[in-house]
Amino acid sequence: MDIIFFANDEIRFLRCNPSKKHLLVRIAASYQLPEGCLINGIITNQANVLSKLQELKKQYSLKKVHICLDSSTVLSKVKQVPFAKEKNILNFVKAEFAEVASSFEQPVFDYTVLQDKLQATRQGTVFAVCCDKGLLKTYIDLFASLKVQLLSIDVAANAVIKLCSKLFQGTTDTFVVAIVDKSSVILNLFVAGKYYFSTRGRILQPEGSEEFLNEFIQRISSINQFNKAQKTGQEIGAVYLVGSIAAEQDRCKQLLEPLGLQALLLTQLDTFVRKNKIFDMENRLADYIYNLGSVLEQRWQ
Prior knowledge:
Radius of gyration: 19 Å
Helix content: 25-40%
Structural class: alpha/beta
């Protein structure tokens, strides 16, 4: 299975074989794009992106692919919905986005089932998304011109939900998965093991500087306060550092300790993912968190 994640100015490619218990990673590779070619999931220079994809296609004999996008233009909500047929749930999702969807020329809606065990209220929980069809069409046309079959389009938040649901299966812990990719910071809150909320933003201070870390910790503090304000009945115990912020674990430990929070790495990946002999060990698995999550199918829990 081949999965491509489109990061800011970078294409990340993963080839793996999924099974019930593990993922066997066969190839992980990244392709740098000229600055400004891909911003917030929006392709601004299709020729340069196509050129890199042609290089990838030639190098790895790419024929069929799943892709994952990360863009703030993709809107999302976690909502409780009544038990109903798929079409009726989709109509409920459309109603939820009615006001904001009007800003899109051609809004597209979808959802993933997060939980279906709320039998007392005959309701389930879904992760609902809405975006403009134009965003998706850009990628559909791109792969059509490449003559590569596009099998599915996932969004980054859904990939994180699926992966963490697998890695933390059975846990009732409350934690934050903090993903830092250059200046981009995405914080994903899981309450009692279930996805609850995410927030995203950018830190313009130099990465690794004291100013960068202080702002990062301030954002962790804010989501910690948000959890308390929501009266979830759960205290955040740990922050899992993913991406470039993982290199700052020791400094984060010192800064998070006064908040009563642990700074941990996503070591669960090491037991879930298997790497074959040709896998480049210098590639950090956590850099491919969106690719890994997109591999997984969302199961009714």
